[in-house]
Amino acid sequence: MTGISARGIEVRYNGRPAVAGVDLEVAPGEWVVLVGPNGSGKTSLLRALAGTVAAVGEVEIGGRSRGILGRRRAARLVALVPQDPVLPGGMTAAEYVLLGRTPHLGYWAAEGAADRRMALAALERLDAASLAGRPLGALSGGERQRVVLARAVAQDSAVLLLDEPTASLDIGHQQQVLDLVEGLRQERSIAVLGALHDLTLAAQYADRLVLLARGRVVAEGPAAAVLTPEHLSLFSGARVVLLSGPGGELVVAPRREAPGEERGWGASARAGAEE
Amino acid sequence: MNPEKPLRRVGPTGLAVALGLLIAVLVGGVLVGAVGLAPGRVLAELVDRLPWVSVDSGLSRQEAAIIWDLRLPRLVLAALVGATLAAAGAAYQGVFRNPLADPYLLGVAAGAGLGATLGIVSAGAASPIVPGAAFAGAVGAVLLTYALGGVAGGGRAGTTLILAGVAVAAFFTAVQTFVQQRHADTVREVYSWILGRLSTVGWTEVGLLAPYAVVSVVLLLLHRRLLDVLAVGEEEAETLGVGAARVRLVVVLAATLGTAGAVAVGGLIGFVGLVVPHAVRLLAGTSYRVILPLSVLGGAAFLVAADLGARTILAPAEIPIGVITAFVGGPFFAVVLRTSRRGWGP
What we know:
The complex is a heterodimer of chains A (275) and B (346). Chain A folds into 2 domains: 4-90 and 157-227, Rossmann fold, CATH 3.40.50.300; 229-275, no CATH class. Helix content of chain A is 32%, strand content 25%. Chain A has 9 helices and 12 strands. Chain A has helices at 42-50, 66-77, 93-98, 113-125, 141-155, 171-188, 199-205, 223-226, 229-232, and strands spanning 4-13, 16-26, 31-35, 56-61, 64-65, 78-81, 159-163, 191-195, 208-213, 216-221, 240-244, 250-254. In chain A, strands 6-7-8-3-9-10 form a 6-stranded mixed sheet, with helices on both faces. A 4-stranded antiparallel sheet of chain A has the order 2-1-4-5. Chain A has a two-stranded antiparallel ribbon with strand order 11-12. Chain A is globular, with a radius of gyration of 20 Å. With 346 residues, chain B is mainly alpha-helical. In chain B, 73% of the residues lie in helices and 0% in strands. Chain B starts with 11 loop residues before the first helix and ends in a 7-residue tail after the last helix. Chain A binds chain B through residues 47, 50-52, 71-76, 78-80, 82, 85-96, 98-100, 102-103, 105, 107-111, 113, 116, 119-120, 132-133, 136-137, 155, and chain B through 3-7, 222, 225-226, 228-229, 231-233, 235-236, 238-243, 281, 285-287, 342-346.
């Protein structure tokens, strides 16, 4: 079983720190969700874990250092679903998903029948088998996201990093994608680390939340402990109410300020649980 | 339905069409020439050389020499140059993810131009050192581009390299113009070299180019899967375990070797490396597993056909082949672009 852990991660862009010393651990089969305002370092942290940005600190995958594993072996263990994946318009969904087999192939090798089967099985697993022959340019937002996830599934990794996998999806598709990830997590006990903007979905799907602000971990733990009025004021002074759903689940509902109420950014940290 | 159908690569139909086209233009090329020889006799002469076959073609020794020492080496060279330039162009478009990329992108043309000019100025257009000088200039220019790109931007990112190539090409072209101005008497030879020529070649030139062309084309073909991986961008390629910078370096070196060899013997034949891969992409699909092999065959066929036009349209005079490739390639490309729905964008 393989999880991922990071110690002292720092990422800088032109000297400006985006991630300033983060420790993090995701156990096999665990789903950890990164939350935080825009610019809090969620994407940079995920990129550091995926090895696509220069970072200070130690990343260990299944107890072994990423540096020692090397690029290709690390890619067999960690898959990243980027926030804004590059989707070549003329490539078919099946061809795209087949790219997920890349880390399992030698430099000169071509995919074999087993790789093709795994790619098509990944599409099927995400209820996207019918999209196989379609060019990526002709897919809708929801279809596209399932195909991108299918590529990560074909990669057959033990760790799945998701950067805003539900951005630009309607609410039904958001749930569909998260349910698919949840299914994969249970089936293969993969470690899932995802960044999500929607705090209600984050609270409902995560085993544990990690709240980032200005590149640091501000709070960590179960949703009820992290999504407090004090912490929610970090989100650009959001005006929200914390509600309890019919099953006792946490709901973070945005609230428009009524006329006459106190106005202004940062003045609305008065969110409180209404029971 | 075959469940693996969406993953089938080069269809046998596509390969058969491209191969048929190439064979057709090769046969056309050997039958037609400035000296009229009866087609039946030419074919008989060719068949006669097959093992265990003996046919009397009825051609004189001199006529047979026209076929064996003039037409055939020229055809083979046109095919090699066309295949190499088209494969290099396709590979460049892949590693730089740029539809405007052609084999001359990183300064090969300017470097070869300077090398050839220096060679022509110092030893004359007919000198055997001209191809060598052009080859050295082409390879030197690309190495300089890589060095400059590495100094300028971290990690030799694609765009940095392209900009470094622009700088190197401008510098080499300036030097070449200066040298040319100082030796105005050679302007005509230099100019004719720049427009491309396959007219004065024999088996020697074929022998010079063949090793570079074969190594380059084979290396590029072997990278066709990795070029598809690079289509998702450098960062995602990294998360798939592929070092984009290293793949780009190997592909650029392979393409440079082939291109330098091609310009050394054939001059700066333009348009092949840009138009052939695009035509293939528009007609047959966007995967490099399709584009590369079909570009090799299509590039060879295109240049053989262009050379056939170059030596017959105004016979016995010859038109520079670069004029033909641009004159025919431009409108042809426009038609393909208009009638196809496949494009570069998303």
